[in-house]
# Entry
Amino acid sequence: MKEMTEQELIITLMQESGLHDINLSNDWGGNLGWWYMSVDKNHLYVNPLFMMTLGYDKNDIDNYIEVDTLYELIHPDDLSAVKEELKLHIDGDSNVIELTFKIKSLDGNYLQYYINGKINSLSIEQGMTFIVGTAYDVTSQYLSKRELKKQPLPKHKSLMQDELTGLLSKSYYEEHLQHAITLARAGQQSFCLVIADLDFFKNINEHFGRDKGDAVLQEVGRILKKETRNTDHIGRTGGDNFQIILTDVDFKTGQMISERIRKSIANHMFVSGIRVTISGGLVFFKKQSYEDLLNTAMTLLRKSKDSGHNKMSY
# Structure
């Protein structure tokens, strides 16, 4: 294979992602677009929106910025975590980069950015190491810009976590699902989606009371965490409804994990001797639309319910 220059590789990576404008046009995926980081040269190529959102004029944005320049904009409270997460991924100790950090705009306010990404295999083949990912402005989910300027941004777990179970909140989980789809479309990862809910959970609340029902949900959350991996994403998306993104798996592995979850819950003795089962549907992502992915998983969930419960359908 002919060796590419850094610029040629960027063009190829953009084309792989369905992008064609090396001037980094504003129609990239993600609300701040794609980003590409050259690990070897510490060059960061970003969509203009990444910098324009911070108050910079589009005409003043260079084709790339130095990674150290980005570090100067990141809030000191977050900088060490950002560097550590990048190092872990570059060293091969994490599958995907996921970072939320405060970044300073021209007017002195701090915005909150979320980025994800992964080392691209094509760049490795070309003797260069590039991380490819998407970026999002998530400031509105945290504090107002005025409050951000006055004080360091707290973690605000209430916006990201379900209060009862400690799993991802519905809105934050849905962001993870959108990000997983974006990465999968760019060829950066594969994933399976599981949609599941507890069987006859209403009966538990009616017979044992809501406190016992909440205790069951909390324990189910712990089981889901135990039976999945750190790279997977679990959200509580309804009362007793859960969704799981199983990252970097094939269909067969996804089946194995979902069956392990089902068996673990069915075999568990919950508070007050309560027994509960779970049913669900699993779909391997094949570049279908967001809506089709969810609809297929929901159809499979209904199939599990209609065929006797305590079942995973594929």
